Amino acid sequence: MVSNTKEVKDLDFDVTRSADEVRKLAFKDEVCIGCGICEKVCPVEAIELGDIGAIVRTEADEAKICVDENKCVLCGMCSVGCPVDALEFTIDGESIKNMDVYPQYLSSAEIDDETCIYCKACEMACPREAITIARELPERANLVTGEIEIDKDTCIHCGICEEMCPADAITMDSKIPTSSDPTVASDINVDQDKCVYCLICKKACPVDAIMAACRTCSYGEYDLDPADAEIKGSSFIDDDLCVRCGWCEEICPVDAAKVKKPFKGEVTVDQDKCSTCGACVDICPCDVYSFPQPEESGQIVDKVFKDETYCIYCGACENVCPVDAIEVKRTDVDYTPTKSKSWKNKMESLKT
Amino acid sequence: MELKVEQDNCLGCGVCVVACPVNVSISPEVSGGHGSKTEEVIMMVENGVIKLFSPEKCTKCGTCQMFCPTDAIWLE
After folding, report:
1. CATH class of A140-229
2. Do residues A256 and A117 make contact, with C-beta atoms less than 8 angstroms apart?
3. Contacts of A56 in chain B (CB under 8 A)
4. What is the per-residue burial (b if ≥16 Cβ within 10 Å, else e) of A62-101?
5. A277-319 confidence digits (pLDDT tens)
6. What is the pLDDT of residues A61-95, one digit of tens each?
7. In this structure, how many other beta carbons lie within 10 angstroms of the beta carbon of residue A221?
8. Is 3.30.70.20 the CATH number for A5-98?
9. What pLDDT, on a 0 to 100 scale, did the predictor assign at position A1?
10. Which of A50, A53, A62 sits opposite B61 (nearest CB)?
């Protein structure tokens, strides 16, 4: 008889069956968001969602889901149902995501590098830290033009210019005066690559030893090449971690990010039932929830604030709320067509 | 996972009793820092230490563990 084998690696595991074809289900705990959809779609009740509230909030050494390898029939439904890539199902090494016969969610997240100005707002906002923006800034010297010179004969080496220079462009070689050389510095220099011709040194110099002029306003268009001011960069979205929450799209100032979510729905929070334990705030993979701060003392605010703009209607918050104050409804599931009626029924059953 | 307590570690501060969202839904006055009016709650401080009354009601959200200053209550 062919039986399944389970191989556990830390919190991750693989369930495999080797017969005519090798069917393998691989679970990545780090990617799992605790939505419990796998548990709901499993046709043989082989999957159990763990106590995700405690697991996430207390960093317990326990996987978020448990698959009973003796019950699992390696059908792959959980993998198709998983809205992130926490459960990957392969047949003979080929992911079923690449097989047209299996349905899959229509969801995506993209950043258009042509439009992106590499401001990094999305990188900061992404609740899953799935975005990396690499950028190359222009040389500061290429953005300014001017002239500067220190008259070393007039300079008394007071160090005021060095102390005040906002660009750290002036360096004075200080020394202790001796009877043979009764001076406080051996030299003073301006680094032309660092100087921004702000003229602070010139204005501050007590002996008018600095001659400096900024040419940017008057001769900038002749001296400077706009191409030198260009910020180059590239964006990267880690597909494994991305949950298509839409934070990047919302926060992007130039509409460079586009996100397509797999579900539509509605979230209801019963503010009377809520006891502000924060479990939803901690579990939500999309930072939908936050605790509102009153604008003035005495003002009564909602116990917990939600913005569904970022919600993927995964249902993790509903799973974790200890007082049943949250209801997540999924009204629409967007997936590629499948000929199998039972698979279609499963996908449709995600609507609540 | 199971809710566990270690009475030797407990200072009897009652933070877990107040923080527990299930306790609050059973006996709302605990959210104001008062003692529970009923033994129906999950846990209460009795004789200066924490005691579990209805651990089966615990939904394992981990709030008590997050707030306990002495690791006297946890999920395992």
Report:
1. alpha beta
2. yes
3. 62
4. bbbbebebeebebbbbbbbbbbbbbbbbbeeeebbeeeee
5. 999 999 999 999 999 999 999 998 999 999 999 999 999 999 9
6. 999 999 999 999 999 999 999 999 999 999 999 99
7. 10
8. yes
9. 64
10. A53
Q: Does domain A108-134+238-349 have CATH number 3.90.950.10?
A: no
Read off the tokens for A244.
């298509």
For residue A317, give the 3-state DSSP assignment. helix
Secondary structure letter of residue A49 according to DSSP: E
- The answer to whether A207 touches A155, Cβ cutoff 8 Å, is yes
The alpha carbon of residue A39 is apart from the nearest alpha carbon of chain B, in Å, by 18
Contact B63 A320 (CB under 8 A): no
Sort B75 into a burial class: Cβ within 10 Å, 0-12 / 13-18 / 19+.
buried
Q: Measured between CB atoms, does A57 come within 8 Å of chain B?
A: yes
Question: What is the phi/psi pair of residue A261, to 5°?
Answer: -90, 150
Select the residue of A54, A56, A275 nearest B21 (Cβ to Cβ): A275
Q: What is the mean pLDDT of residues A262-278?
A: 95
User: Could you tell me if A217 and A145 are in contact, meaning their C-beta atoms sit under 8 angstroms apart?
Assistant: no
Residue in B63, B67, B74 to test binding to A, most A beta-carbons within 10 Å:
B63
The structure tokens listed for A327 are 């209801």
